[in-house]
Amino acid sequence: FQAEDGIRDLVRSRGLGDVYKRQMEGRYVRKDGHPIYVNVTVSLVQWQDVNARFAIVMLEDISARKEAQAALVRSEKLALTGKLAASLAHEINNPLQSVLGFMSLVEELLEENEEKAKEDARTYIRIAIEEVKRAADLVRQMRNINRPSALDERKPVDVNTLVERVLTLSQKKCQEQHVQVTWKAADDVALVSAIPDQIHQVFLNLTLNALDAMPDGGELHISTARTEAPAGVEICFADDGEGIAPDKLGHLFEPFYTTKTTGMGLGLYISQKIIQEHGGRMNVESVAGEGTAFTVWLPMQRGTE
Ligand code: ADP
Fold first, then answer.
1. Which of 205, 268, 273 best tests ligand 1's pocket when mutated (most atoms within 8 Å of CB)?
2. Which residues line ligand 1 (CB under 6 A)?
3. How far apart are CA 84 and CA 135, in angstroms?
4. What are the tens digits of pLDDT across the range 195-212?
5. Sheet containing 281-287: order of strands
6. What's residue 6's pLDDT?
7. How far is the CA of 125 from the centre of ligand 1 (A)?
8. What is the pLDDT of residues 251-264, one digit of tens each?
9. Ligand 1 atom having least distance to the Cα of 264
10. Would strands 35-46 and 179-184 be described as parallel, antiparallel, or unpaired?
């Protein structure tokens, strides 16, 4: 058992009279070369009135438990990948089927020489192009999902500036939909370490979702605030739109969950993934008929506190 020396050092490093008990997990190599996971408990015992002490070291082989845990994680990951692949296949198959259908119609129409047939063919081709675009868009979004988070692409980002960029982009749509925007930027918001384009995508998703929830106008309140312990920045998007029923709240972040006829249901799924990869989190609170608030929290970049 090769950990012996380490434990001996540990015991030696403590002063006489110390009361000490420590538990740790380690990966050790058995004499036969087989690696095992062990739970080690070390207790220092002081012999009464005598200038001597000893340590009790207990070792418990937890390899089987560790392996079971790892197997569980592996099978959960596998199940999720399978589910994702099945949904993706379904989502891509839909537009492909309609392209097939419309192209067969176009083929038939080509046999005819009338002007009306040509016009119909043009309409079908336009629909087919839209459908192919939809499938391509889906593939593009999925490609980004499992991209490993590129740590070296991160840079210090001012979230207030990102929110303002999103507001400029969505200004026209807000006006058209009679949505009044109030923007409260905290002036002490520090920098976060982030990939700016990704965070921008999240803010844009949340803003566009809020607009979709207010087809007949309403109010969108966006604010940023600094948080302490843990240090970070909280960004809130609150609308007074249609809200979300309690039984739907739990599904929002699932891939392909959508209640919109033209929605893809990937916006929130991807947004949450991006925020989690940045070490942050995302929450939603909603009351059906009253409105919805999405809150994003991002950890502060070290050294800027
Ligand atoms: P999509 O916008 O393509 O539907 P999302 O993942 O962005 O995909 O959103 C999933 C679903 O969450 C939407 O279809 C909608 O039902 C709900 N949702 C998201 N944001 C809001 C909001 N601000 N108010 C009401 N419902 C929302």
1. 268
2. 205, 209-210, 213, 239, 241-242, 244, 252, 257-260, 263-269, 292
3. 16
4. 888 898 899 999 999 999
5. 179-184, 218-227, 232-239, 291-299, 281-287
6. 60
7. 30
8. 999 888 889 887 77
9. 3
10. unpaired
